Amino acid sequence: MEFKIDKALPNGLGRIGTIKTAHGEIKTPAFTAVGTGGEVRFISMEELHALGAQAMLSNCYHLRNKAAEIAEAGGLAKYSGWNGPTVTDSGGFQVMSLGDGWGKKVAMTRELGVKINRDEGDKCHAVVTEEGVEFTDPESKEKDFIGPEESMRIQCQIGADIHMAFDELTSFDKDHDQSAESLARTERWAERSLAEHKKHCDDLGYHQNLYGVLQGGRWEDLRRSTAKKLGAMDFDGYGLGGALEKENLGEILRWCTEELPFEKPRHLLGLSHPDDIFIGVEMGADTFDCVAPTREARHGKIYTRDGNINLRKFTGSTEPLDHDCDCATCRAGWTRGDLRALWRSGDVEKKVQYWNLASIHNVRFSVRLMEEIRQSILDDRFEEFKKEFLTRYYGE
Length: 396
Description:
By secondary structure, the chain is of the alpha/beta class. It is built from 15 helices and 16 strands. Helix 9 links the parallel strand 12 (237-240) and strand 13 (266-268). 48% of the residues are buried.
C-alpha cells in the first residue's frame, strides 16, 4: 500500500491524498460503503460503482464462518464481485456489542450469562480476558472466541486490502483507571496482531495491510500516549475508534492525529453525519465508514442538502427527494411521495425496490459530500464550503 498526500490544510492535520491498494486507488477523503456480509444491502456492485463509491468495508465477525470459502475464491474483492479496494474491521466491536446487546455501553464480566445491573433479566454475553473475548453468538446461541491471532487469521483469509488490529472496545462509562487498563490490553493485542498478521498477509498472492486501532476513551493522556506507542509500531495506517463523544469529537481526534505519523493514512470508524465528517477531515481522518446511510434509508430517513427528512410526512408529495442530488434515483425522477408509497406498501417487491432506491440515494449523498470536500481543499475554500454546507444542512 502507498499513501500519497496531495495537499494539506493550513492546520497541519487535515489533508487530501491517494491510497493505492492491490485492488485500486482511493482518493481521500472517502466514504467507505459498508457491506457487512460481503455486499452492501439492496445495492448491486454495479450500482455501487456507478454512484462513485471507492471502497467497501466488510465485517470480520459476520464473515468469520465463510472465511475459508472467501479465500478459496481469491479474496473479498473477487468473492463479492466488487473488484475494488476493500477493508475489514477486526470484530472487536461486534463480539462485545452484539454479545451484550447494549451498543457501545458494554458490560463485561468473568462469567457468561451473569445478570447485569440494567433492566431485570438482561445478561452479559461477552467475557474479556488477556487471551481475547469469549462471547455467545446471538443467532446460534453457541459460545465462541476471538482473540488477536484468530482475528488476524480470519481477516487474512477474507483478504481485504486493509485490516484492523484486534482491540478492546472502550465504553463511555469507564473511568480513567478502567480505561487505562483496557487500553493497555489493546496495546498488547496490537503487538500480537502485528506478529500474527505478518505470517499470513501475503497468503492470497497480494499484500494485505494492517491498521492499528486507537482507543483511550475521553482521556487526553491515554489518547496521546497510545498514538505515540502505536505510531512507533510497524502498522500501515491507523483506525480511530472507541468512545468518541460527539461534543468532544474534534478534540479527541486532534489528540490522536497530532501524535500519529503524518505520512500514514487514518480511518475514522463508524461515523458519517456531515458535522462528524467535516470535523474528521479537518482533524486528519482520511477514510470513513458507517452503516447509517443504508440503515436509515430502510427506515424512511432520506438525506437532503436541507437536512434529513422522514418520508412518513410526504404522502402523495411530488417534491424531489433532494433538489440538488445527482444520484440515479433522483435522476430517474422518483419523488418523495413515490418512495413513501413503495416503502409503506404491503407488497414485498415494492418494499425491496424502495430499499434499493433509498439506499442508492443516501450512499450517494455521503460519497458526494466527500468528493466536494476534496475539491474544496484543492480550491483553498474548505472553511467556506464547510460553513455553507453545515448552515444549510442544520439551519442557523
